[in-house]
Design goal:
4 helices; single chain
Length: 88
């Protein structure tokens, strides 16, 4: 879009840097979850570079926004648009 139409494009790519699989893997390897996620994030961006894919303008990580995610989810629950399952 930028090259063809001369538009200012902002690409935002969310990075999931914490989830159950990452936590379990970090416990299994006895390393911090950040060591695992930083390694794979770097590999991902290296692959993007090799493929000549433009990197995103912003790449926020889930761990940077946990309070916002909790508040958003609580709002959905408070409005009755979601429910808590027995298994969490």
């Amino acid at each position: 879009m930028t090259r063809v139409f001369d538009l200012n494009v902002i690409l935002v790519m969310g990075i999931t840097d914490i989830d159950d699989k990452i936590i379990h893997r970090s416990q299994e390897l006895q390393v911090s979850f950040r060591e695992i996620t930083e390694y794979y994030e770097q590999e991902f961006f290296t692959d993007m570079d090799r493929l000549r894919v433009w990197r995103p303008s912003l790449a926020p990580r889930v761990t940077e926004h946990v309070p916002h995610i909790i508040a958003f989810t609580q709002g959905i629950l408070d409005r009755g648009l979601a429910y808590v399952a027995a298994d969490g």
